[in-house]
C-alpha cells in the first residue's frame, strides 16, 4: 500500500529528505539524499487544481467550467499555490488595463470579470 508523501517532520516541522528509492518489480534499492519536487509541498487538492489548470492551458475561463467555480475563486486558488511554492503573486493593483483587455480578448475572462478587475484597481 502506498501512502501520500509528507514533506515536513511531524515532530519538529523540518523539511524531510528522501533517503531510499525501491523498484516494486525487481526490488532494486537506491539509497542517497534525494530532494522533493517543489510541487511536493502542495496538498492533493492543490495538485488537482494545477493539473486542471495545465490541462486547460492556463485558460481561467476553462478552469472555471471544469471545476465549476467562479473567476475570483480560480484566481484565489492560483495565488495560494503561487505563494506556497515560494513566489509572490501579483497584487490586484498590478493588474493593468492592458492585461485585462488581453484576457478579455483571449476569452479567459468575461466582460463582467473585466469590469470587476478594472474597478478593483
Question: What does this entry look like structurally?
Answer:
The structure is a single chain. With 121 residues, the protein is mainly alpha-helical. It has a domain at 40-120: Arc Repressor Mutant, subunit A (Orthogonal Bundle), CATH 1.10.10. The protein contains 5 helices and 2 strands. The protein has helices spanning 44-55, 60-67, 71-84, 97-106, 111-120, and strands spanning 18-22, 29-34. It has a two-stranded antiparallel sheet. The chain is elongated and about 55 Å long. The protein starts with 17 loop residues before the first strand and ends with a helix.
Element order, helices and strands? EEHHHHH
Instruction: List unreliable stretches of 5+ residues.
Output: none
- Percent helix, as a range, is 40-55%
Given helix and strand content, the structural type is mainly alpha
The chain-level mean pLDDT equals 88
Quote the beta fraction. 5-15%
What is the second-level CATH architecture of the domain at 40-120?
Orthogonal Bundle
Q: What Rg is obtained from the alpha carbons, in whole angstroms?
A: 19 Å
User: With helices defined by DSSP (H or I, 4 residues minimum), what is the helix count?
Assistant: 5
CATH C-level category of the domain at 40-120: Mainly Alpha
CATH topology of the domain at 40-120: Arc Repressor Mutant, subunit A
Largest sheet: 2 strands, antiparallel
Euclidean distance between termini CA atoms: 50 Å
Quantity of strands, as a count: 2
Q: What would you call the shape? A: elongated
Strand line-up across the major sheet = 1-2
Organism: Fervidibacillus halotolerans
Protein name: DUF2089 domain-containing protein
Domain DUF2089: 9-40, 42-88
InterPro entries: DUF2089, DUF2089_Zn_ribbon, PucR_C-HTH_sf
Amino acid at each position: 500500500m502506498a501512502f501520500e508523501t509528507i514533506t515536513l517532520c511531524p515532530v519538529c516541522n523540518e523539511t524531510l529528505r528522501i533517503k531510499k528509492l525501491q523498484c516494486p518489480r525487481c526490488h532494486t534499492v537506491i539509497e542517497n539524499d534525494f530532494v522533493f519536487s517543489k510541487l511536493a509541498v502542495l496538498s492533493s487538492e492543490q495538485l488537482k487544481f494545477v493539473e486542471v489548470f495545465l490541462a486547460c492551458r492556463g485558460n481561467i475561463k476553462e478552469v472555471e467550467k471544469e471545476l465549476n467555480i467562479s473567476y475570483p475563486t480560480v484566481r484565489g486558488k492560483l495565488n495560494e499555490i503561487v505563494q506556497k511554492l515560494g513566489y509572490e503573486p501579483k497584487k490586484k493593483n498590478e493588474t493593468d488595463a492592458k492585461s485585462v483587455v488581453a484576457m478579455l480578448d483571449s476569452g479567459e475572462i468575461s466582460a463582467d470579470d473585466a469590469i470587476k478587475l478594472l474597478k478593483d484597481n
